[in-house]
Specification:
By secondary structure, this protein is α+β, with helices and mostly antiparallel strands. Strands 2, 3, 4, 6, 7, 8, 15, 16 and 17 form a 9-stranded mixed β-sheet that branches. It has a 4-stranded antiparallel β-sheet with strand order 11-13-9-14, covered by helices on one side. A two-stranded antiparallel sheet has the order 1-5. The protein is elongated, with a radius of gyration of 23 Å. It starts with a helix and ends with a helix. 48% of the residues are buried. The chain binds zinc ion. Zinc ion binds next to loops.
Length: 408
């Protein structure tokens, strides 16, 4: 079986030209003109490979190589092709074009799989436009219900229903029934430095961490920075600063390297050097691969926030935006990937995914695992994101091997 790494790189480069940012940056936001052009390009490539295309009501695109027993649940691979503002060209797209390359390699090798093989191209993995990540795969898995989907709007007030007008049908038609797929595998760049540091070309993902995202609004009392005496202050920002430190302490307190907590956004009102902050707005992100442990961190943060509010006499309001369960990958799919690495004689490492992916949601309806390849310096979501042709081709080869085994 031969992987055409040159063709894969050319197609990744060509896909990167569908961008609202000048090269080497890529910006491709769901349901914009560049997103539409990228979809047309990908569908052209799939049709040229003889794949049968279906699109659902939210624009998730399915390209199927029909197997010898088409009534059996298919084996699927794929990823996303949207890109956050000023991103690179490999995040998601490797799983789409690499998945297509794996299918083409199997075709060229004269394989004829028993189960159909399907390439999935997910709509809007990135939360750029509608504020929610993994939009397409959430709807496929039913973890976002159709009614909540209908209520989504972008910052300009355009509803998801208006934006997806090219696609017929209600959002409730998107959900897949469990058993629809025999297995799902997502090939992705690692977006972290571990494989590169270890000098290992392949990572088999055994679990995917999931974020809990919180919005916190703290109301204190503002005033003149000279006139309000220190013992009388009810400074909203200082309460927020304490809360940010409490997030760090709670994440560290589990003793596990897999627990992480971040206060990545902090806004202070009114935001003047001579004014005591009256309001502070924070966004928090807590992740783990162990849901119970992550949820204990959330409880610690809630307790800390009550104590801070009482001591500093401020009001703290917390809203949970999402608290998705982490996923354990399916042993059957993990072992198929491990067996492929071993059959091809390539070293691999079992690892967890600290970023979340469409696979997190696919795992709710299909046996799922992921395959990582290294990216330079672990850099992602930046224009200088890079994966070498050799590393990508190795990943595609293992993917093709595993797909063939799962579909046989
Ligand atoms: Zn991605």
């Amino acid at each position: 079986m031969k992987i055409d790494a040159g063709r894969l790189c050319r197609e990744l480069d060509e896909l990167a030209t569908f961008s609202d940012a000048p090269a080497p940056a890529v910006t491709r936001v769901v349901f914009t003109e560049q997103d539409r052009l990228a979809r047309d390009y990908l569908k052209r490539l799939c049709r040229a490979a003889g794949l049968v295309i279906r699109e659902d009501a939210v624009g998730n695109t399915f390209a199927r190589w029909v197997g010898r027993e088409p009534e059996l649940p298919a084996v699927a691979t794929g990823s996303h092709f949207d890109a956050i503002p000023n991103a690179g060209r490999y995040d998601g797209t490797l799983g789409v074009l690499g998945g297509l390359e794996a299918i083409r390699a199997l075709q060229a090798a004269g394989k004829s799989p028993r189960r159909s093989l399907e390439l999935l191209m997910f709509t809007s993995e990135e939360p750029t436009r509608f504020g929610i990540g993994c939009l397409g795969s959430r709807l496929l898995s039913g973890s976002l219900d159709a009614e909540a989907g209908e209520r989504l709007r972008d910052r300009e007030g355009v509803t998801l229903n208006q934006a997806r007008a090219d696609y017929a049908g209600g959002l409730s038609s998107v959900k897949l029934t469990p058993g629809h797929y025999h297995a799902f595998v997502e090939l992705h760049i690692e977006q972290g430095p571990l494989l590169e540091r270890a000098g290992i070309g392949l990572g088999v993902v055994t679990a995917i961490a999931a974020p809990a995202s919180l919005r916190v609004t703290i109301d204190g009392v503002g005033g003149h920075a000279g006139a309000v005496l220190m013992p009388e202050r009810r400074d909203a920002f200082l309460a927020g600063a304490e809360l940010a430190l409490a997030v760090e302490a709670a994440a560290l307190s589990t003793g596990s390297i897999d627990t992480v907590g971040t206060a990545g956004l902090c806004q202070v009102f009114p935001g003047a050097v001579n004014s005591v902050p009256s309001r502070c707005y924070l966004e928090l992100d807590i992740r783990d691969i162990d849901e119970a442990r992550r949820d204990r961190v959330l409880v610690s943060i809630a307790t800390a926030s009550e104590q801070i509010a009482a001591r500093r006499q401020v009001a703290i309001r917390t809203e949970v935006i999402n608290a998705d369960p982490p996923a354990r990958c399916a042993p059957m799919v993990v072992e198929a990937l491990v067996a492929s690495c071993e059959a091809l004689g390539w070293p691999h490492q079992r690892m967890i995914s600290r970023a979340y992916h469409d696979s997190l949601f696919l795992s709710l309806v299909a046996p799922t695992a992921m395959l990582f390849v290294p990216c330079r310096d672990g850099v992602s979501h930046r224009p200088d994101e890079y994966a070498s042709p050799e590393d990508m081709a190795r990943g595609v080869r293992v993917l093709a091997h595993a797909l063939a085994a799962l579909a046989s």
